[in-house]
Write a structure and sequence with these properties.
The structure holds two protein chains of two kinds. Chain A has helices spanning 23-26, 37-40, 42-72, 87-113, 131-148, 154-173, 254-261; strands spanning 120-123, 199-201, 218-223, 263-267, 287-291, 303-305, 310-312, 319-321, 327-330, 339-340, 342-344, 350-352. Chain A is α+β, with helices and mostly antiparallel strands. In chain B, helix 3 (56-76) runs antiparallel to helix 5, helix 12 crosses helix 13 (343-371) and helix 12 crosses helix 14. Classes of the chains: A alpha+beta, B mainly alpha. At the A-B interface, helix 1, helix 2, helix 3, helix 4 and strand 1 of A face helix 5, helix 7, helix 8, strand 4 and helix 10 of B. Strand 1 (120-123) of chain A pairs antiparallel with strand 4 of chain B, so a sheet runs across the interface.
Chain lengths: 368, 571
C-alpha cells in the first residue's frame, strides 16, 4: 500500500494520459429489443394468458378454502394435530399464503410475459434547482429577514432565543411524574429481607430445613411472604415465635420485591468454603446463601456446576464462585454476588440474620 | 412508445383517438377538476425505473413494513397491554391456574382462542425479522455499489434512521407479551439504563414508573410500539420514497445507460405490476412462514417471573450483536469518590452501538471528504471498483459478525462442545483483529478483480484452447469479451484525487486549515492507492496492436500467424 505509482490523475489536472472515454462516446445505445415468444407466437401468448388467469383462480380457490379452514378446524390447545403443527394455524396460513401468492405471482407473470417489455429511457436532471430559482429564493429569504429586522434588534432576538430555550423546560419537567414520587436511589439498597425472616422454597413456599439439603443440592429460595399460596394470597412473614415481621405484601409489589429478594442456597462440604474474615459464620454447615440476581445486568442466575461450586448466569455467562464469597471468576460481571448471613433455628430451619449488606442486582452510579 | 408486440393485443399499436372519454378518462377528469393532479401524474405515471434483482431488497423492507402495519392492527384488537395479574384460565392446560399479567393472558388468548390469531402473531414476528434483515442487506447493497454518493446522501441518513428506529420498534414489540424470555430482556435493559453515569438510576425509575419491573412498562412500551415509532417510521419511509422518486433510481452501467439518463420500465404498467405484485408475494411468504414455522412460543416460556430464567436466553437476532459485546467485555467496573461506574455495561451496550450507528450515518460524508468528489453519480459501481470503500464495509461487517457470534457463545459452546471461556477469549481478540484482516484481504481481492477485468478487456478472455502453429509454436486462443461486458470495464470513470491547494503560500507560510488538508491528501492517496484505472485509449490501441501478433506460450516466433489475426479481428 506504500507504493502510489498507480494513483489516479489529479482532478482537473493536465495529465496527458487520457482517462477512459466517457460512456456516452462509446455507448452503442440501447441493445435491440428482443421479441419474447409471447410477442410472436399467438399460442404462447394465449398460454401465458391462461397461466396468469390460473394463478388468479388458484388465489380465489385458496380464499374459499381459508373460510372453510376457519370454520372447520377448532384451535384451543390442539397444537400438534397435523405435522406437529396446529391444523387451524397451518391451513389458515397456507391458504392465506395461497391467496396472496396467487395474486402476486399472477400479476408478475402477466407483467413479464404480456405487458410491454421494451426498456425506455428518460433524461435525468441535476438534483439542484436552477441558478435563477436559487437566487430568487435567496433574495426572498434576505428580504424577509431584513423586513423582520431580526438582525438589527439583538434585544428581541436574544430574548426570543432565551424564551424558546426555556419553553423546553416545562416540556421536560412535565415528564417527571413518569417516575415514582420517591426516586431516591437508596431504595435499591433495601430488599424484603429482615432479621429473622425464614427462607422458603420459591414454588411451594415451605420453609427449608438444613436436613433436607444434601451436599451438592441447589435450592431456589424467597423470603417467607413472597410466595403465594394456592389461593393466590400472600401470607405475612412470621419470625421464630410466630409473630408477624411485617404485614402481608400487596400483590402489585410482588414482582418488585421478588426481583431483589430471590436467593439461591447451595450445600457444599464445609471444608470447601473459603470464608472471608468477616463471614466466618455466614454459612450453616456448608449451606451458603447468595442473591440470585446477577450483578451484571440483573438476570436470575441459574446454571450450577456441581463439582466446582461455580454458578453461571445464562444471559451473559458471568460465573461466580459460591465457595469463595461469590467472587466473579469469568465473564462480564463487575463485582461479587451479595451473600446473605444465614442461620438456623433450633429445629434446623434456615433464616436470614439480616438483609443483604450491599445492593443486589446490576450496578448503578449511586451504588457506592 | 413503440412497444408494439407483433401479436399481443395488450400492446396497443395506435395512439388513443380523441372523442368520448373512456370510463377511466372520465374518472380521471372528475378527479383532476377537483385536485389538479394531472400535472403531477403526467411525469410520474410513466416514470422509468431501472431493473436489477438487488433493487428488490429495499422493496422487501417496504412491503414487510406494510405487512407489519396490517398484522399489527389485527393484534391490537385483542391485545391488552396491562400488567394487572390475573389467573390464567385459557385453553393451554399446563399454565392453567398460574398467575400471569393481563398482557401475557391476552397474548395467550390471541394464540389459543382467536382463530388465525396465532398465525397473525407469527406473521407479525416473521415480518419484523424480514423488515430489519432486508433493511440491513439493502443498506449494504447501497454502500457496496456506491448508491449513497451525491445526491443521495440524505436518503442514506434517512435509511440509517429507519434501521435504528426499526430495531427499537422490534425490541419494544418483542417485549409486549410479557413472557419469561422477553421479560428477561427488559430486565437486562433496566441494567443497561442503570449503567449510565449520574442519570441512569433516575432513567430507570422514569421508564419503569417504579423500581423494576413496576406496573407501567408494558403499557408504555405498547404506546411507543403502536403509535410513536410507527408514526415516525411511516414519515421516514415516505420521505425515503419521495427522495427516491425525485432523484430517480440509480442504474447499472451498460449499453445505452449513462449518468445522464435512466433506462428501464415505465411505472405504469410494468413497474406498478411488478412492485405491486411483489407486495402480495411478501405478504404470502410471511403467511406461509407463519403457518409452518413456530416463532416466539410464549406458552413454552411461560409468564415473566423476575426470579426465573431459561437457559440459553437469546434476544431476537438483530439485538444479538450488542448482546455479544456485553458477553465478551471484561468485567471492568470502577468505584471512585463514593460512586460506581459500571463501565463493563456502559461501554458495550450504550457507547459502542451509538458510535457504530454514528459511523454508519457518516459513511457517505467520510468517503466524500476523503475523495473530494463533488459530482453527482447515478451509475452504480461494481464493489471491486471502489476497493477501499468495499473493504471498509466488509470490515464493519466483520466487526458486526464477531459481536454477533459472541451473542451466541453459549449456543456455540453447547452445539460444538467447545469451552465457552476460550470462545470468549478468542472473540475478544478477533473483534479487533478480524476487521483489520478483512479490510486488507477485501481490498487486495478487489484490486485483483480489477486487474483481471482490465486484462480481459484489453486481451480478451482465455478460451482454454491451445493451438500449435505450423512451425511449432504454442499459443492460447483469446476471445474478446461481449460488447456489453467490455463496455462496463472500459467505460467506467477513473478515480480522481481531490484538488487540494498546497499547504503553504508563496512565502512558505502555513495556511489555516492546511493541516486537515494534509491529512485529507494523505487519506485520499491511501483511499485510491493501487486501484486499477480503466484502460486508456493508448492501452487499448497498444493491445490491439499486440493482438495483431499472437499470444505465444513460451518461445517461438510466429509473427505472421494468420489464425490469430482473424480470431481477434473477427469478433
Amino acid at each position: 500500500m506504500s507504493e502510489h505509482d498507480n494513483l489516479p490523475a489529479q482532478q482537473g489536472g493536465t495529465d496527458t494520459t487520457p482517462t477512459s472515454r466517457p460512456l456516452e462516446d462509446q455507448a452503442p445505445g440501447l441493445p435491440a429489443h428482443l421479441w419474447r415468444p409471447t410477442d410472436v407466437d399467438r399460442k404462447a401468448e394465449k398460454r401465458a394468458e391462461r397461466q396468469v388467469a390460473a394463478f388468479f383462480v388458484f388465489s380465489m380457490i385458496c380464499a374459499v378454502l381459508f373460510v372453510v379452514a376457519y370454520f372447520a378446524f377448532s384451535i384451543g390447545d390442539e397444537m400438534d394435530t397435523f405435522l406437529g403443527l396446529g391444523a387451524s394455524n397451518l391451513f389458515l396460513g397456507l391458504t392465506l399464503g395461497g391467496v396472496m401468492l396467487g395474486i402476486g405471482v399472477g400479476v408478475i407473470h402477466w407483467a413479464r410475459k404480456l405487458m410491454a417489455d421494451e426498456e425506455i429511457s428518460e433524461l435525468r436532471h441535476p438534483a439542484s434547482s436552477s441558478a435563477e430559482d436559487r437566487d430568487t429564493t435567496l433574495a426572498a429569504l434576505n428580504a424577509g429577514l431584513d423586513e423582520s429586522g431580526i438582525g438589527r434588534r439583538p434585544l428581541i432576538r436574544n430574548t426570543l432565543l432565551g424564551a424558546l430555550g426555556l419553553a423546553g423546560v416545562p416540556l421536560v419537567v412535565a415528564f417527571r411524574d413518569l417516575g415514582p414520587n420517591d426516586m431516591s436511589p437508596a431504595q435499591l439498597e433495601k430488599t424484603f429481607w429482615m432479621p429473622g425472616m425464614y427462607v422458603v422454597r420459591d414454588v411451594v413456599g415451605t420453609r427449608i430445613n438444613k436436613a433436607d439439603l444434601q451436599i451438592g443440592d441447589l435450592v431456589n429460595g424467597e423470603p417467607e411472604g413472597l410466595v403465594a399460596d394456592s389461593e393466590g394470597h400472600l401470607p405475612p412473614p412470621l419470625d421464630a415465635n410466630g409473630e408477624e415481621l411485617r404485614p402481608a405484601l400487596e400483590h402489585e409489589r410482588l414482582n418488585i420485591e421478588k426481583t431483589k429478594a430471590a436467593v439461591i442456597l447451595l450445600r457444599m462440604s464445609p471444608g470447601d468454603i473459603v470464608r472471608a474474615p468477616d463471614r466466618e459464620n455466614w454459612d450453616v454447615d456448608g449451606i451458603v446463601c447468595y442473591s440470585k440476581i446477577c450483578t451484571h445486568v440483573g438476570c436470575p442466575i441459574a446454571l450450577n456446576e456441581q463439582q466446582t461450586h461455580h454458578l453461571l448466569c445464562p444471559c451473559h455467562q458471568s460465573t461466580f464462585d459460591l465457595a469463595d464469597s461469590g467472587k466473579v471468576i469469568f465473564g462480564p460481571a463487575g463485582h461479587a454476588l451479595p451473600q446473605m448471613h444465614l442461620a438456623e433455628d433450633e429445629d434446623g430451619f434456615l433464616y436470614a440474620v439480616d438483609d443483604f449488606s450491599e445492593p443486589v442486582g446490576p450496578s448503578y452510579w449511586e451504588r457506592g | 412508445m413503440s412497444t408494439t408486440s407483433k401479436v399481443a393485443s395488450t400492446n396497443g399499436a395506435t395512439a388513443v383517438a380523441g372523442g368520448k372519454p373512456s370510463r377511466i378518462g372520465a374518472g380521471a377528469q372528475w378527479a383532476d377538476e377537483r385536485l389538479g393532479l394531472a400535472g403531477l401524474a403526467k411525469k410520474n405515471l410513466r416514470k422509468v425505473f431501472p431493473d436489477h434483482w438487488s433493487f428488490m431488497l429495499g422493496e422487501i423492507a417496504l412491503w414487510s413494513f406494510v405487512v407489519l402495519l396490517l398484522t399489527g392492527v389485527f393484534l391490537t384488537f385483542w391485545f391488552n397491554p396491562s400488567m394487572v395479574e390475573v389467573e390464567y384460565q385459557g385453553s393451554y392446560a399446563p399454565l392453567r391456574g398460574s398467575y400471569v399479567s393481563e398482557a401475557f393472558n391476552s397474548s395467550m388468548h390471541i394464540s389459543f382462542e382467536v382463530r388465525g390469531g396465532l398465525l397473525v402473531r407469527q406473521m407479525h414476528h416473521w415480518a419484523a425479522h424480514l423488515f430489519i434483515a432486508s433493511m440491513m442487506i439493502h443498506m449494504m447493497r447501497v454502500f457496496f455499489t456506491g448508491a449513497h454518493r451525491k445526491p443521495r446522501e440524505l436518503n442514506w441518513v434517512i435509511g440509517s434512521l429507519l434501521l435504528l428506529i426499526g430495531t427499537l420498534e422490534g425490541f419494544t414489540g418483542y417485549s409486549l407479551p410479557d413472557d419469561l424470555l422477553s421479560g428477561t430482556g427488559v430486565r437486562a435493559a433496566d441494567g443497561f439504563i442503570k449503567s449510565i453515569p449520574v442519570v441512569g438510576t433516575y432513567g430507570s425509575f422514569l421508564l419503569f414508573g417504579d423500581e423494576f419491573p413496576g406496573t407501567a412498562i408494558i403499557p408504555r412500551l405498547y404506546i411507543i410500539h403502536v403509535l410513536l415509532i410507527p408514526g415516525v417510521l411511516l414519515a421516514l419511509v415516505a420521505a425515503h420514497m419521495l427522495l427516491l422518486v425525485y432523484h430517480k433510481h440509480t442504474q447499472w452501467p451498460g449499453p445505452g445507460r449513462t449518468e445522464g439518463n435512466v433506462v428501464g420500465f415505465p411505472m405504469l404498467p410494468v413497474y406498478a405490476a411488478k412492485a405491486g405484485g411483489f407486495f402480495f408475494i411478501v405478504f404470502g411468504v410471511t403467511a406461509v412462514m407463519g403457518a409452518l414455522m413456530t416463532i416466539n412460543p410464549i406458552w413454552m416460556y411461560g409468564p415473566y417471573d423476575p426470579s426465573k430464567v431459561t437457559a440459553g436466553s437469546q434476544p431476537d437476532w438483530y439485538m444479538g450483536w450488542p448482546d455479544g459485546l456485553l458477553r465478551i467485555m471484561p468485567g471492568w467496573e470502577f468505584e471512585f469518590w463514593g460512586v460506581t461506574f459500571p463501565f463493563n455495561v456502559f461501554l458495550p451496550i450504550i457507547v459502542v452501538p451509538g458510535v457504530m450507528w454514528t459511523i454508519l450515518l457518516l459513511l457517505p460524508f467520510i468517503e466524500n471528504w476523503i475523495t473530494g468528489d463533488k459530482r453527482e453519480h447515478h451509475l452504480l459501481q461494481r464493489p471491486r471498483d471502489a476497493p477501499t470503500r468495499t473493504a471498509l464495509m466488509v470490515s464493519l461487517m466483520t466487526f458486526y459478525a464477531m459481536a454477533w457470534i459472541a451473542g451466541g457463545n453459549d449456543i456455540i459452546a453447547i452445539r460444538f462442545d467447545l469451552s465457552i471461556n476460550q470462545i470468549t477469549y478468542f472473540l475478544r481478540a478477533a473483534i479487533f483483529i478480524g476487521p483489520l484482516i478483512a479490510f486488507m484481504i477485501t481490498r487486495r481481492w478487489c484490486i485483483s478483480l480489477q486487474r483481471h477485468a482490465k486484462e480481459q478487456a484489453l486481451h480478451g478472455y482465455e478460451t482454454g484452447i491451445i493451438e500449435r502453429s505450423p512451425d511449432g509454436a504454442y499459443s492460447e486462443r483469446h476471445q474478446p469479451l461481449p460488447a456489453a461486458k467490455q463496455l462496463v470495464i472500459t467505460g467506467r470513470e477513473g478515480d480522481r484525487l481531490p484538488e487540494l491547494e498546497p499547504g503553504t503560500d508563496a512565502n512558505g507560510v502555513r495556511k489555516p486549515g492546511s493541516r486537515t488538508d494534509g491529512l485529507r491528501g494523505r487519506l485520499s492517496k491511501l483511499w485510491f492507492a493501487d486501484n486499477v484505472q480503466p484502460p486508456t485509449q493508448a492501452e487499448i490501441d497498444e493491445a490491439h496492436h499486440h493482438h495483431d501478433g499472437a499470444h505465444e506460450l513460451g518461445a517461438g516466433s510466429s509473427a505472421d500467424d494468420d489464425d490469430h489475426v482473424t480470431l481477434t479481428k473477427g469478433h
